[in-house]
Amino acid sequence: MTFPDHFSDKARQYASARPLYPRELYEFVASVAPGRERVWDCGTGNGQAAEGLASFFKTVSATDPSAEQISNAPACSGVEYTVQPAEKTTFPAATFDALCVAQALHWFDYERFYPEAFRVLKPNGVIVAWGYDWFKISPEFDEMFMKSILSVIRPYWAPQNSLLWDGYRNIPFPFFRIETPKFEIEVLWDYHQLLSYVQTWSATKRCISKQGDIFFEQATAGSCQIPGCNFGSMSASDQA
Asked: Most CB within 10 Å of its CB: which of 9, 89, 140, 231?
């Protein structure tokens, strides 16, 4: 089965440049699961969520259809990595206390994924899907960054990304919904670390492929003219 592979060619950069999820998020997952024996991290990518979940569950089964992404995931006690699509796995029925999807649900084939989720979850098992959208640093910086980067790559976003930006409100979700708290990611990055993160975006990759990277080079060269570019607190909302 083919899948929308937007990240394999940047798997190593994805692993080093993406922000980490807050520990409180994993604590919440563990608190609503019926047990802590086994959790499926579906669409694990570079294994960020798998590592976090390993602190709260005995076994983490982490899957991704991209072998390149899995090869860049760090070894972690209690985490078992396999290359498998979300929509069809080799897991036995009623295996997992929880099923987690971090920053990936908008890429799935829902008609095939949800039956698989029902199949592998234990009775009263939970599915928790989350993602982050846009960062905020300061009004001055955010305005300049919009002009120099975001407005240039805007035409190159895949339609599925709008599902994430809307907090997954417009996707089918055949499960009883659980009230969730709001989570935030806060990191301290310099400007070049921020640009490394932006380079992992699928839209950035498409834009550079179509029109070259001059706009990105100009943004890098002009960093000292952008207010607050040396360091800043990047805050993005997680929609659980």
From this structure: 89
Provide DSSP, 127-141.
EEEE-B---B--HHH
Sign for the pseudo-dihedral over CA of 199, 201, 206, 210: negative
How far is 63 from 42, CA to CA, in rounded Å?
5
Within a domain: residue 57? yes
Domain with 33, as residue range(s), is: 8-238
Question: Could you give the number of structural domains in the chain?
Answer: 1
pLDDT band with cut points at 50, 70 and 90 for residue 213: confident
Q: By CB neighbour count within 10 A (0-12 exposed, 13-18 middle, 19+ buried), where does 142 fall?
A: middle
Tens of pLDDT, residues 56-75: 999 999 999 999 889 988 89
Q: How far apart are the first and last CA of the chain?
A: 28
CB atoms inside a 10 Å sphere around CB 233: 13
Q: Does the structure show a pLDDT above 70 at 128?
A: yes
